[in-house]
Design goal:
Layout (H helix, E strand, L loop, with lengths): L5 E8 L3 H12 L2 E4 L9 E4 L5 E5 L11 E5 L8 H13 L9 E7 L5 H22 L3 H6 L6 H10 L4 H9 L17 E2 L1 H5 L2 E8 L4 H20 L15 H11 L8 H8 L13 H9 L2
Antiparallel strand pairs: 1-5, 1-6, 2-3, 3-4, 4-5, 6-8, 7-8
Helix pairs in contact: 1-2, 2-8, 3-8, 3-9, 8-10
Length: 300
């Protein structure tokens, strides 16, 4: 997971794009340019000292007036860039940007190492754990219904039956035909795991995340997306059998899933804390501790 490149989009409201761009520049250095076109996005570019471009742009899906819409689009990042990204997030928050329920976060993982088998694995892993993921990430009903829908059952059935062995065959399964010229606003992109971007811009896009300007939570989201991607790439095979969601044991169940993804040890302690925070139950055991109950019964 530490070798996968990624990018992130963070939607915010409440502050101008010029102020948000200046906040980014205060961390990464370089220059700020008001690009202005296309007008619907009215973007500002921050060309950092290392030459990479951070973009701040409008997004019509946000609740604020256009002047106070600021979607932060990162350049291609590496694992070691996460700390810089966190400083950018803190600077944007200090500048007065905020988020509401109209805002989301999208994490893009470089698709260069995803072959057809890895994409099949990813879809099946997500389908199996989807209810847990949705509850852990606190995805609202509105966003699940429109902006980040679940795994498409027909698509899953198709790849399980036909086992596409090439990206071209996966393309046909995803779109229902061979789409050799995908466009940005293709309707298939509104999935929690968006494979449309594999052919549109060369990334696997994770659209699940509610927006936040809490730097620790954003880091946890990125680590989760990277770990899930690495698991799909490295797994020999995966099961798609959908697991039942039990709210009483959800915290334990999701912790086990995170450990299987490799999010183990002190490095990922904070990630586990954030990713488990919304779930009920105990992270340490599944349901009631039978040994404790038996001891209490035996000893009055």
């Amino acid at each position: 997971m530490r070798t996968l490149r990624f990018g992130i989009e963070i939607e915010t409201i409440g502050q101008t794009r010029a102020r948000v761009a200046a906040a980014i520049q205060s961390v990464v250095g370089g220059t700020v340019q008001h690009v202005g076109t296309p007008y619907c996005y009215d973007p500002y570019d921050v060309i950092a000292e290392d030459g990479r471009r951070w973009r701040v742009m409008a997004d019509s899906s946000l609740s604020a007036e256009k002047a106070r819409q600021a979607e932060v689009v990162s350049p291609i990042l590496r694992y070691e860039d996460i700390e810089t990204l966190q400083e950018v997030i803190r600077a944007v928050r200090r500048a007065g940007a905020r988020v509401d329920t109209s805002c989301g976060i999208h994490v893009h993982v470089d698709a260069a190492r995803f072959d057809a088998k890895a994409l099949r694995n990813l879809v099946k892993i997500v389908n199996k754990q989807e209810r847990l993921i949705e509850h852990a990430l606190g995805i609202s009903d509105v966003r699940r219904a429109r902006w980040c829908r679940g795994v498409d059952a027909d698509f899953l059935a198709k790849i399980e039956k036909d086992r596409p062995s090439s990206l071209e065959e996966m393309n046909r399964a995803w779109y229902g035909y061979h789409n050799n010229s995908p466009h940005h606003y293709d309707s298939t992109r509104y999935r929690g795991v968006n494979l449309h971007n594999v052919w549109f811009r060369g990334t696997v896009e994770y659209r699940w995340f509610e927006s936040t300007l809490h730097a620790g939570k954003v880091k946890a989201y990125i680590q989760f997306a990277l770990a899930l991607s690495a698991k799909a790439i490295n797994a020999r095979a995966s099961s798609s059998r959908r697991r039942d969601f039990n709210p009483d044991t959800a915290k334990y169940d999701f912790r086990v899933f995170l450990l299987k993804l490799g999010l183990i040890g002190d490095e990922f302690k904070t990630a586990r804390l954030h990713l488990l925070a919304r779930l009920n139950g105990s992270a340490a055991w599944k349901g009631e501790r039978r040994d404790t109950v038996a001891y209490q019964e035996a000893n009055g």
